[in-house]
Amino acid sequence: MATVETKALRKEFTGHTAVDGVDLAIREGEFLVLLGPSGCGKTTLLRMIAGLETQTSGDILIGGKVVNELPPRTRKIAMVFQSYALYPHLSVAKNIAFPLKAQGAPRESIAGEVERAAKMFGIERLLQRKPRQLSGGERQRVALARAVVRHPDVFLLDEPLSNLDAKLRTLARDELKQFQRRLGTTTLYVTHDQVEAMGLGDRIAVMSGGKVRQLGPPQEVYDDPADTFVAGFLGSPPMNLVTVDGVLVGFRPEQLLPVSAASAEAATVPMRFAVERVEHLGAGRLLYGTLPDYAPTEKVIVSLAYTVHSSIEAGHTYEFRVHQSNLKFFDPTTGLRVPSRALPARKSA
Amino acid sequence: MADPRKVAGGVVNFGVIAAFTAFASFPFAWMLITTFKQTRDLLDPSHNPFIYTAPPTLEHLRVLFQDTLFLHWVVNTLFVGVVVVIITLLLAVPAGYSLARLTGSAGEKLGIGIFLTYLVPPTILFIPLSRLVAMLGLQDSLWALVLVYPSFTVPFCTWLLMGFFKVIPKDVEEAAMIDGHSRFGAFLRVILPMSVAGLLTTVIFSFTLVMQEFVYGLTFITTSKNLTLSVGVPTFLVRGDVYFWGSLMGACFLASVPIAFLYNLFVDRFIAGFTVGAVKG
Amino acid sequence: MTAPALARPRFRERAAGVTDSASWLGRLMLAPAVLYIVLVVAVPFLMAIGYSFSTVTIGTSTPRFVGLENFRSALEDTAFLKALGNTAIFAVVSQTLVIVLASILAIALQRKFRGKWLVRMLILLPWVAPISLGSIGWLWIFDPVYSVINWTLRHVGLFGPDTWPIWLGQPKLAMASIIGVHVWRTMPLATIISLGGLSSIPQDIHDAAEVDGAGFFRHLFVITLPLVLPILLVAVLFGLVFSITDMIVVYVLTRGGPFDSTQVLASLAFFKSIDGGDLSGGAAVALFLLPVLAVCAVLLLRLARRSEVV
Fold it and tell me: In a 3-state reduction of DSSP, which class is residue B242?
C-alpha cells in the first residue's frame, strides 16, 4: 500500500507530446480512474508509472520514493493489461506463479500463494488449464490473480474490462471494486468508458491532449465540470451546450423537465422545447429538439426517465423548466467554466 | 544517466550482429575484392590478400564479358527466368486462389499435397525427367528447363499465394459479386489488383528459385553456349585444374548480389505469407 | 413535391455459368496446376520408383524387373553406407548449429537500429545467391594454396608455421567445411523466419514479464524462446530438407572426395547415374531419401498446426 505521485510529468514522442505536464497525487488505498478518449495520454501515463516507458521530464514517486530510474520489477507494482497478456504457453497455475518465481520467492511458499490468489477469484479449478482454453471472463480473473499474488503496493489496470461482453462488464465492475476495497491497495485504472469511471472511481482524472482537465470525485466531475471537454465527455447523452448571448450554456439532458414534472421552485428557468423526434428506449425516453427561444438552430437532447409520465409528441412545443443551479456557463473560446449568471427571460415569439 | 548494463548489452548486441553479418557476407566481399585483383597479385601467396599490392584491374571483368560465354549465360538465365515466371503465375495464381477460397477442407488437404511435392528432390526426379526430355527431343535446349522448372516453382508459389489470398477479407469479393461481377470477374477485377504485392513476391521468389537451380541445368544442357549462369560459371570457367579466379569471382558476384537486393525488398511479405500459411494451416 | 426519377441502373442479366459456381470454378482454376504437377512431378516420381526396381542404364531401352536387388546391393555397398552416414551427420549437425545461431541472431536483430535493411540484405545473401556460385566462392576461400582463412589466421598469429589446414583435402576437415557451408547457406532463412515469429509475440506479453519481475535470462528462456520455438522448428525442418537433398555444395567443393568422405546420398545418386551410367542404382540411392523426407514433412505439418499457441 503506497501513495503514487507524479510531478510535472512529460512524455514526448517525435512530433507529438503524449503527456504534457501532469501533476497527480493518488492517496493511499484510493481507486483513481484516468478517464479520456483514445490518444489523450492516459495509457502512456500509466506505462510511465509502471516503468515501461521512460519519461521525458518530471518525477514519479511511489510511497514517497522517487522511482524515475527504476525498472518495473523494483517498483512493487502489478499491472493488468487490456489483453490480459497471459503467457499462452504456461498453465494458469504457472502464470500466477511466474511473478513469485521471478522474484525468487521460496519454492515451498509458491504453491500456497497461487492457491490463495486463485481462491480469491474463484478460479481454483482452472489451475491446470491453458489460457486458450478459458473464456474472456476467466482470463481476466487469471490476470487479476497474477497481479495480487505478489502483494504489490500499487495496482495498475489498463482497461481490463473492455474485452468483456457488455453483459459481463457490469458484474465484473462490481467484483473488481469489491475486491479492491477488501485489499485496500492503491489502484490506478485507465478507461475511456465514462460509466465505468463513474462507477469505480473514488476520484476521476479526466484527461485530454496529454493534460488533466479536472480531478475530483465522480459527482463533482459530473455536476461541476471545469470545462466543456469534461462536460461533454461525462454523461450519456452528453451535456447540451448552446450559445446564448455570446456565452456557452450547458445543462444535462435529464435536467430539462416538462413543467408537470419539474419541481415548482422559484429557482427554475422556463424554456420552451420544440420536440422533433421521440425515441422510446424502454427505461425512458430521449427527446430530440431545439429551444426556440434561446437557440433555435442548435440540437438539444432531453432525457426523460420512466417515472416522468408527461405525454410528449413530435412536432409540438412544450413548456420545460430547468433549475438555475443546473445551468453551467462556459467561455466559448477557451471552453473554461465561467461564473454562473442569470439567463435573460425570453418572451415567446 | 546511462545504465552501464544497458550499454554493455548494446555493445554485445552490436557485436553479435556484426559477427553474423560478416560471416554471411564475407564470401561476397571476398568475391568483389578478388575480381579486381591482378592475377600476379592474386596468385602470390606472400601478398596480403586484402590489399591491392598491384593496382586494381578491370581485366578479369573484360575477359568475363568478352572472352567467355558469360553474357550468353546471362541471357539464357533471363530467358528461362522470365518464361518460367510467366508459366508459374498462370498456373499458381488461379490454383492458389482456388485453394484459398473455393475448395473448402478438401482444398486444404490438396493444398498440403501440392506443397509436399515441393519437397521431392530433383535428385530423384532428374533421372526420369531426362528421359522425358530426350523423348520430347528437347535435350540440350533451354526449353527443357522451361518445361521442368515450374515443377518446383508452382508448388511453392501456389502455397505462398494461398496464404496471401486467405488474408483478403471475403466481403470485398462479395461486394463485387453483388455489384454485378461473376466470381471469376470478382477475382480478376478486384482480388488481383489488391494482391499486387503478393504477385510481385511470387515473381521474385520464382525467379530466385530459377536462378539457383543446378541439377536439371547440368543434366539437360550440354552445349556450353546454352548453359544457365548457375551451371556455366562453376563448370566452364574452369579449364581442367586451372581456375580463372578473377573472372570466376566476378561472375559469382554479379550473378548473386543484384537478385539478393530484389529479394530483400520482398522478404517481409514472404514471411507474412509464410507464417500465416504455416500457422493457420 | 416529388424528387426527379433516378435512372434505374440496368442489372445485366446473364445466365449463371461456370464463372459463378464456386465448386466448378474452383476445380477449373485448380486444374492446370494439378495437371502439370501430375505430369511433371508425380509421373516421373513413379517412373523413378519403377527404375529402382529394374535395370536401367543410359544405354538400355528395355528394362528388366529385378525387385529389391538394387536396394540390396546399395545396402551392401560401403560407399553407399558412408554416404548415408554422411548425409545424416551433415544434416543434423548443420541444422543444430543453425537453430542455435539463428535464434541468437534473431534475438539480437530485434533491437531497433539504423541500417537494418542493409544488414538484412547482407544476411540474406548466402540464401539467395545461387547455390553453385556461393559454393565456388567458398572453393576459393578454402583454396589449398591461397586460402584467405589460413593467411589471416597465420598473420594474426593463431596458426604456427606448420599449421596450414587443407580444408577440402583432409577427410575430417572436408566434412567440417561442407557442414560449415550448409550452415552458412541455411542460417539466413531460419533467422528471417524466426524474426517473423519473434515479432508476432504481442508486446503486452513482454511488458507483463517485465512488470512481473523477470530478469534477462528468465525472460529469454521461459517466455520468449518457448513462444518462438514452433516457428523456429518449422524453419529448421525446411533447412533439414534442403541440406539432406542437396548435392550442389558437395559437387562444387569436393565432388564427394577426398576418398568419399564427403559423399552424400544426393551426390552419390547423381554420380552413379551420370558418371556410372547406372540409372537404376542411382534411382535406388535417391529413393532412400524418401523416408526421411516423409518424416520431416509430417513433423513439419504437425508442428505448424500446433504452433497456434496463442
Answer: strand
- State the DSSP string of B121-134: -HHHHHHHHHHHHH
pLDDT mean over B203-208: 91
Q: What is the nearest CA distance from C94 to chain B, expressed in angstroms?
A: 15
Q: How far is CA C237 from CA A327, B17, B18, B19, C230, in A?
A: 72, 24, 27, 25, 11
The mean predicted confidence, pLDDT, of chain A is: 91
Domains along the sequence of chain C with CATH:
73-306 (1.10.3720.10)
Domain A240-338: homologous superfamily in CATH: Nucleic acid-binding proteins (2.40.50.140)
Range B59-280: architecture per CATH? Orthogonal Bundle (1.10)
In a mutagenesis test of the B interface, which of C121, C152, C241 is the best target, namely the one with the most B β-carbons within 10 Å?
C121
The reply to whether B249 touches chain C by the CB within 8 Å rule is yes
Instruction: State CA A204 to chain mean position distance.
Output: 6
pLDDT score for B86: 96
Q: Across the interface, do C210 and A78 touch by the CB < 8 Å criterion?
A: no
Neighbours of chain C (3+ CB pairs under 8 A): A, B
Residue A307, exposed/middle/buried by CB under 10 A (0-12, 13-18, 19+)? Answer: exposed
The domain defined by A4-223 carries CATH number 3.40.50.300: yes
Disruptive mutation site among A75, A79, A82, A96 for chain C (greatest number of C CBs within 10 Å): A79
Would you say how long chain A is, in residues?
349
DSSP assignment letter at C6: P
Q: What is the pTM of this model?
A: 0.80
Task: Indicate the residue of C205, C211, C215 with minimum beta-carbon distance to A79.
Answer: C211
Q: Where in chain A is the domain with CATH 3.40.50.300?
A: 4-223
pLDDT digits (tens, 9 = 90+) for B49-93: 788 878 888 888 888 888 888 899 999 999 999 999 999 999 999
**Amino acid of residue C155:** H
State how far the Cα of C171 lies from the Cα of B7, in Å rounded to an integer: 44
User: How far is CA B193 from each of CA B160, B182, B187, B188, rounded to the nearest angstrom?
Assistant: 17, 16, 9, 8
* pLDDT of residue B217 exceeding 70: yes
A318 forms bridges with which residues in the sheet?
A: A273
